[in-house]
Amino acid sequence: MKHILYRMKQIIRQKTLLFWAMAFPVILGSLFYFMFGSISELEQFSEVPVGIVNSQGIENKKADVTEESFSMENVQMSAEYWKEEAKKQSAEGFLTMMNEVESDNGTKMFKVKEYADVSKAEQALQDGKIKGIVDMEDEYALTVKESDIYSSLIKTFIDQYQQNVSLITDVAMEHPEKLADMIASMSDTAGATIQEISLKGTDKDPYTQYFYALIAMTCLIATMVGLNNGNDIQADLTAVGARRNVAPTPKLVQVAYDFVASFILYCAIVAFVIGVCVFVFQRDFGNHAALVLLGGCIGSFTSLAIGTVIAIFTKGSVQKKEGLCVAVFMISSFLAGLQWADITYLIEERCPIVNRINPATLIVNGFKSLSVFGDIRQYAVNMLTLFAIGVICVIAGVLKLRRMKYESI
Amino acid sequence: MVVKIENLVKRYGDLIAVDHFNLAIEEGEIFGLLGPNGSGKSTTINCLLSLLEYDKGTIEIFGEEMKPTSYHLKKNIGIIMQNVAVFEELTVYENIDYFCGLYIKNKQERKQLVEEAIAFVGLQDFRKFYPKKLSGGLLRRLNIACGIAHKPKLIILDEPTVAVDPQSRNKILEGIQELNRQGATIIYTTHYMEEVEQICTRIAIMDKGKNLALGTTDELKAMIDLGETISLEVLEITDDVMDAIRTLPHVIQVSYEKHLLKVKFSKGKHNLLRLLDLMRDKEVAFGNVHSELPTLNDVFLEITGKQLRD
User: Using CB atoms, which residue from A10, A243, A244 is nearest to B89?
Assistant: First the structure.
């Protein structure tokens, strides 16, 4: 127990290591937070206040468009009828759609406020109460105070709506017999979209992946701790290693003490980083923070084992081994998408095996499958793979260390 | 017999670092392993501790073969490395406690031993200091404390006074003698002949991995022809006088450099008297006169033909 406590003290007092393991992820996380936070905020806004000038008092009806309502009988009606009907219903439909359209996170996209008078709407726009004015009497003309993400969103919505109305109207006029198919087709597309976004996970923020990569990187920095553990038991590398080798406590026992101490401490470090992500950077990891922590602990275990293996199996100076270790965790983190999120998709297309064995990717993808897809099975597979890599490293390290003899000191 | 090395051979490729080395150390000795840098002292010690694989020979400690897994033997061995072997992140107390803990499991016993070790090396005022805050001498003392805290029966010190100030050096040497008085057998490697002369009961002189000579200081000095070296301050001296000196009994070598006349005599009586009589007869004025007995450097020089610190 004393050995474990002393090893913990040693690690805690290594300022450089603490910087990389704790401060660096927090700094990097802060950068992510401030970089992506504003973007994410815009992407995940709850409701954009929009003023609708509706002098004719068109009713806002709940959308009730079903396939049955587009029966062949209706389709057989005259094109002129459909044209007029479309125009009449267009305004109602617009109001309905604007009131009911939802963003991916299930919240309403717009908060519609109707104005009978343009001047009142303009006053509200000036006061900042609404982000834009849509005049239904003037072909859905949009008036905004300034050009920003909100005005773009309203404009996109209007354009999309008008395009769809135009498409339906044209088909109704020229090929009314195909209208039902088209509606069905649009319905299928809508269905597909619904299927795609109806993920079981609750965290769909694309930027959360950067925080997963950040946690993975934090875990991988444990390779440096593992490296120190491995170096400090080798008589030909460090004077301390020589002294420990001549002690009556077997070196495997000493390494085990070091490993346990490092693991406990590093789990605390990972918990700290995850805590900062949850409480400071407002990442709830799809309400799976506990499993993310478990993954972080497994990642730390494997990273410690990898670091120890690098120390034991590679030849050369301490500096050379440290360089190799830094290269391993930086490359692993890069391949997991720390710097560029899309690289994992690229690797998945070109060389998927890398994603199956890269510890950082296993951690990131495990977290993603958990909180984005709600797929606990995939999470478990990734974590077991990660753990297996760690166990293999531990076994290899033990076998090598037991047989290790020194040619020169 | 505490240590017995027979026919030890250690090669680094074509280089023979230890060449059929034999050694036997009795209990209670302070045994000096003297030799220049690269003579094979540290390699021999590392083989003795089973840190290094060796090519040939047998090593026994406390009558048993020494192996890497001889943990029961290791319990009674203390090692003070040439390089300071402590953790930078632990304080003086913590370092000693940590390394003592590798030998002693009992907490109370260990606490007592650590305190004794701190007092022994005189680091009472530095117990909460980190190694990087200690001077070179204090750091060496900490290194020693980490190696001897568990009160080993056999203590191996591999050049413990390298880069140490005279005050700390004396403290260390006194400490080693005290450890010996307390019952420990000491193996002390160094290239400082004054140190082994001061503290060692027996000495082995090593060079190129070989044991060149073995014995007490007096025994080693008795192995060589040199009896004494007499130095005289002389302003001027002629060749005739130099030749006359060379004809004196027991003279081995005569040299004159920078107004200093040095005459080396083999063992014999009245050498100084004869030399001074001759100087008076030849009417040569002289100043200070010194007579030196042979040193271990003289022994090494005579055996190997080179200085110990070459």
Answer: A10
> Cβ contact (<8 Å) for A10 and B74?
no
One-letter amino acid identity for B282? K
Q: Which two tokens stand for residue A156?
A: 């996109």
Distance CA A305, CA A328 (A): 13
How far apart are alpha carbons A155 and A125 in whole angstroms? Answer: 16
B11 → chain A, closest CA residue? A407
Mean pLDDT calculated for residue range A305-327: 91
* CA B66 to chain CA centroid, nearest Å: 24
A4 part of contact set with chain B, CB < 8 Å: no
Q: What's phi and psi for A116, nearest 5 deg?
A: -80, -20
Q: How confident is the model at residue A313 (pLDDT cuts 50, 70, 90)?
A: very high
Mutation target for A interface from B66, B87, B158: give the one with most A CBs within 10 A: B87
Stretch A244-262: mean pLDDT? 94
* A1 shares contact with chain B (CB less than 8 Å): no
Map out the domains of chain A with their CATH numbers: 2-41+205-403 (no CATH), 47-197 (3.40.190)
Residue A380 is inside which H or E element, if any? helix A376-403
The CA R_g of chain A, rounded to the nearest whole Å, is 30
Residue B237 dihedral angles phi and psi, to the nearest 5°: -145, 140
Residue pair A309/A393 in contact by the 8 Å Cβ criterion: yes
State which residue of chain B sits closest to A3, comparing Cα positions. Answer: B98
Q: Nearest CA to CA, how far is B195 from chain A (Å)?
A: 24
Secondary structure letter of residue B20 according to DSSP: E
| A185-189 LR contacts (CB < 8 Å, sep 24+) | A187/A67
CB atoms B102 and A244 under 8 Å: yes
Q: Is the CB of A15 inside 8 Å of chain B's CB atoms? A: no
d(CA A362, CA B64): 52
Quote the minimal CA–CA distance from B34 to chain A in Å: 20
Q: What's the pTM?
A: 0.73
Q: What are chain B's domains?
A: 3-221 (3.40.50.300), 225-293 (3.30.70.100)
**Arithmetic mean of pLDDT over chain B:** 92
From A105's Cα to the closest Cα of chain B, the distance in A is: 50
Mean pLDDT of A314-321: 89
> Cβ–Cβ of B46/A3 closer than 8 Å?
no
Residue type, A25: P
Contact A13 B89 (CB under 8 A): yes
Neighbours of B65 (CB within 10 A): 12
Greater confidence (A60 vs B149) lies with B149
CA A302-A304-A310 angle, to 5 degrees, is 100
Which residue in A has a C-alpha nearest to residue B73's C-alpha? A248
Say yes or no: A13 contacts chain B, CB-CB below 8 A: yes
Helices and strands per DSSP (H, E), number in chain A: 17, 4
Q: pLDDT at residue A335 above 70?
A: yes
Confidence of residue A46 (pLDDT cuts 50, 70, 90): low
